[in-house]
Design a protein that fits this description.
Layout: H1 2-5, H2 11-36, E1 41-47, H3 54-69, E2 74-79, H4 90-96, E3 101-105, H5 128-142, E4 150-157, E5 162-165, E6 179-182, H6 185-192, E7 196-199, H7 202-210, E8 216-219, H8 223-226, E9 235-238, E10 247-253, H9 254-259, H10 262-297, E11 300-303, H11 306-316, H12 318-329, H13 334-355
Parallel strand pairs: 1-2, 1-3, 6-7, 6-8, 9-11
Antiparallel strand pairs: 3-10, 4-10, 5-8, 5-9
Helix pairs in contact: 3-10, 5-10, 5-13
Length: 359
């Protein structure tokens, strides 16, 4: 035998042992991979909405559908109310792997998403479904560098923001010097309208309104029910003339995404495509419920007359030019992005008018 013929230190003997070692390692690795396929891929999903919010429920339905279509090969555990990462930390939490998936607002980290900030501009968004469709389409078209480190699956966005306050607002002068909660660009709108912006996530707004830290909040009307904020305001002004939105990401850590088998990646893409409209329609339904909620509470509702709406539009117009200038300074196609957004919004409005589904 080789052992009898050669001393143990002979190079041929050592080479043979090395070959056996490599062969055993490969066999063990193959067995390990085979064993791993029987175990589900368990992922964590950080969500800033509270557990019973319609968007948390929609996210859970999305996760359950992923599990169903992969025959249980993927299991996704959701962590609502920012219990895994705080709303403003969610994106970084996805990048660093604190959570595999995350849902929060781009606006909670101002300056980090210079091109996608254009999604939140006061473009007179008609409803959440339109905002969600347009936002997702634009992000997929432009694929901005600011999304590096994560796989973007969906962007959803609420319907036109309203101004909920303690005292009625009928004209611009009624906002002057008032402390109004805003986020990202909506905080900028507060300044342009003459108020004093106070930045904070939705999770802190109820207490701030209740304690008088702020005197009002720019928000989608659904927030007044979904976050119970209608209980601590007395009036809601329909400010669709400056109809901004707040766009929210559903994104996965890039390394987690790359580790998934191709068929599972495709399942995520397919289900996410279907859930763009599911998230958008959830916003529309929630807005209807929000209006019903504030009426039940007896809150006053202010509708601005056309001439007053024109004053509000003129007041916030500089925010668009400022966005384009900021993007140009960074070498980003802000002007094209904004033009595409306005074109897509117009197309969605025309489609809704033809189908009789306009809000």
């Amino acid at each position: 035998s080789l052992h009898d013929a050669l001393p143990i230190s002979h190079p041929r003997y050592l080479g043979f042992l090395g070959f056996l070692g490599i062969l055993v390692s490969l066999l063990l690795a193959a067995c390990s991979r085979t064993a791993d396929t029987s175990k589900p891929i368990r992922l964590t999903y950080s969500i800033f909405f509270p557990p019973m919010h319609v968007q948390t429920q929609t996210a859970r339905a999305w996760a359950d559908e992923i599990t169903r279509r992969t025959n249980g090969r993927v299991e996704i555990r959701t962590y609502p109310s920012g219990s895994l990462t705080k709303p403003e930390q969610c994106w970084q939490g996805v990048l660093s792997g604190i959570s595999d998936l995350g849902m929060s607002c781009f606006a909670y980290t101002p300056g980090r998403f210079p091109l996608l900030e254009g999604l939140d501009l006061p473009l007179e968004w008609p409803d959440g479904l339109t905002a969600t469709r347009v936002a997702t389409a634009l992000a997929r078209k432009y694929e901005p560098r600011e999304l590096a480190g994560a796989k973007l699956l969906i962007i959803h966005a609420h319907g036109p923001g309203v101004l909920a306050t303690q005292n009625p607002v009928h004209r611009l002068e009624d906002i002057k010097n008032r402390r109004i909660r805003g986020t990202g660009l909506s905080a900028g709108l507060v300044s342009l309208l003459g108020g004093t912006p106070v930045g904070m996530p939705q999770s802190e707004t109820y207490d701030a309104l209740q304690k008088g830290v702020v005197e009002g909040t720019f928000c989608p009307v659904e927030t007044l029910k979904g976050w119970r904020q209608g209980e601590v305001v007395r009036n809601v002004a329909d400010t669709k003339a400056v109809g901004y939105t707040t766009s929210m990401f559903v994104a996965m850590n890039a390394d987690t995404w790359d580790s998934l088998p191709p068929d599972i990646q495709q399942t995520f893409l397919d289900v996410s495509d279907e859930y763009v409209d599911r998230h958008g329609r959830a916003w529309n339904d929630a807005d209807e419920a929000g209006w019903a909620f504030v009426r039940e509470l007896g809150c006053g509702i202010t509708t601005l007359p056309p001439e007053e709406e024109d004053r509000w539009r003129a007041a916030v117009a500089p925010v668009k030019a400022a966005y384009v200038a900021r993007c140009a300074a960074k070498g980003l196609p802000g002007a094209d992005f904004l033009a595409d957004a306005e074109s897509l919004i117009a197309a969605e409005k025309a489609k809704a008018a033809r189908e009789g589904t306009a809000p």
